[in-house]
Specification:
The protein has 8 helices and 2 strands. It has helices spanning 2-7, 11-39, 41-60, 86-116, 122-135, 139-151, 165-179, 188-198, and strands at residues 66-67, 71-72. The chain is globular, with a radius of gyration of 19 Å.
Length: 202
């Protein structure tokens, strides 16, 4: 949503971005698996988390005229092609880094749990691991929504008025789809397209 609002990306750019992030995530998971065997899951998780945080901070430093908060760049020009401007290239590169770090973070956290959990209670530990993820899954969206409302900044989150009926429609549709088995965790591009369609921007 932020990329769409900042750079005016269409469904094509968003789709390509989603594919690139997915591919780098798969590559990151493969490399992370190899490193997991070589240096251990704990170090892979720590390094991936640091990379993920730095790339996330970096991606928030990009807007249409700036990279890194202070470096002024030329804005994208309509009709120039895919990802031509410096800001778009930086956004794409940092998005790929987020994907590459999320892959091993996701997989190595599970192998780490295998190594630290008592063998006779492994199913209980994995059940608790899954439960904590689901139980706290509302924290991210709630935080983004609160910060967006306070700052009125799309850089912090999605800028939609609280009383916008389209938002209610979007939330109802997400709940209905999740009740049917759809999952949007780790599927940002899919959720983004759904949100854009519900908000009338596709």
């Amino acid at each position: 949503i932020y990329a769409s609002g900042t750079f005016g990306w269409s469904a094509i750019e968003l789709g390509v971005f989603g594919i690139i992030v997915t591919i780098t995530g798969a590559i990151g998971a493969l490399v992370g698996g190899w490193l997991d065997d070589k240096v251990g899951a704990k170090r892979v998780v720590q390094a991936s988390l640091i990379l993920f945080i730095l790339a996330s901070i970096g991606i928030l430093s990009i807007d249409v005229n700036h990279v890194g908060y202070f470096w002024t760049v030329a804005p994208p020009v309509e009709g120039d092609g895919l990802f031509v401007s410096t800001g778009e290239k930086a956004y794409l590169a940092l998005g790929a880094l987020i994907g590459a770090s999320a892959g091993p973070l996701w997989s190595s956290s599970r192998t780490l749990l295998c190594r630290v959990a008592p063998r006779e209670r492994i199913t209980q530990f994995f059940g608790l691991f899954a439960l904590t993820g689901k139980a706290t899954s509302f924290v991210g969206p709630l935080s983004v929504g609160a910060l967006t409302a306070i700052s009125a900044s799309q850089r912090i989150g999605i800028s939609v008025a609280k009383d916008d009926s389209r938002l209610d429609h979007l939330l109802r549709e997400v709940k209905e789809r999740e009740s049917l088995g759809y999952a949007y965790d780790g599927a940002d591009a899919s959720f983004e397209l759904l949100a854009r369609r519900a908000l009338g921007t596709v």
